[in-house]
Structure formats: structure tokens, C-alpha cells
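Technical note accompanying the year-one report. For the benefit of new consortium partners, we illustrate the data format agreed upon in the data management plan: each record pairs a sequence with a C-alpha cell string. No post-processing was applied to the example shown here.
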Amino acid sequence: KAHISGFLGRYQDAIKCFDKALEIDPEDLSLWYWKARAFGDLGNNDESIRLYDIILKKDPKYREAWNSKGIIFDDSGKYDEAIECYDRVLEIDPKYAKGWRNKGLVLGRLGKHKDAIECFDKALEIDPEYRDAWYVKGMAFGKLDSDDEAIRCYDKVIELDPKFIPAWRNKGVIISNSGNQEMAIECFDKALEIDP
């Protein structure tokens, strides 16, 4: 019931259900985890972090708790703390593509685009069809004015998911900036076909 309430956006109801379940089994870390996620979805980051810390005190290798805690720090602009969390994630599981992608996102926010690309490349070594890693890699190349590389990444995104509008849009912007308005319009038209 807690998961269903959460999926329906009824986070307060979900939290009440998790509390009842935790009365029955306070050692079930997955219950703590989903309760922390519900608080995060409500925007109560302090409570969410407090709950993740409870989990990590009981199980310092709970990968998803470190990852979710990193996301909250990233969303709060606490980039150093976010990177520390993602480093822990990757110590626990160096083959966790999402952890590499998330660390790369934070490095990109810090303007470390080459380091970010290295993280995205590691994510793509693990999962060559990880659409979101290709997309953010394209964005990082765009920040470095490596337009050809960015377009190659967006083309890969489009190959994997032809209906992913941001890739069509970003590709169109790069092509437009290069002066090829006709080809840029084709990209924008494609995006509009998907979502008028």
C-alpha cells in the first residue's frame, strides 16, 4: 500500500504506511529507504538525509541509499557532498552505470566537463545503450564547444530513443549555430512531430 501511495503521489499516505510497517519490522532497510525517498519527493530533504543516515549506519554498503543521498545533495547545490556520496557508491559497486552518470552530472555543474565526460564514458562502458549517459555526454561536449562530438552523442541518443525530444532540440541548436538552418529546422520539426 505504501508503494502504491507513493507511485500515485500520495507521499504522506505512503509515509504513514511505512511507519506502520516499520513498527512491525524496524530492521527492514528497504522500508527505511522508501520512507526516505517519500520524504525527498515531498521536498523534506533534511528528513530524507536523516533517514538515509540511519540506513547507512546499519549498512554502510547500501548502494541505493548513498546514491539517493547524493541526488539530494546535488539538487541542494551541495556538490562536494554529492560527489562524496557517488564516490562511496562507486567504491561499493564500480559497475553501477547510474553512479558514474550521476557523478559526471555533478562534475559538469562544477564546470569540470572533461572529468564529467570520463565518468559518462565509464557509464557507457558498463551500459553502451544508456540513453541518459549519451545525452549528458553530448551536453558536456557542447559546453566544450566540441560540436561534432556532441552531435555524435545526440545521434546515438536518437538511435536508442527516436522520441527523445531534448536530443533533437539540442542537435538542432548546434546545427543552427553552425549556420545550417535547413538541417536545424529538420531537427526542430522532428521534435514537434513527437510533441506538437
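Partners are asked to follow this layout when depositing records. Confidence is low (pLDDT under 50) at residues 1-8.
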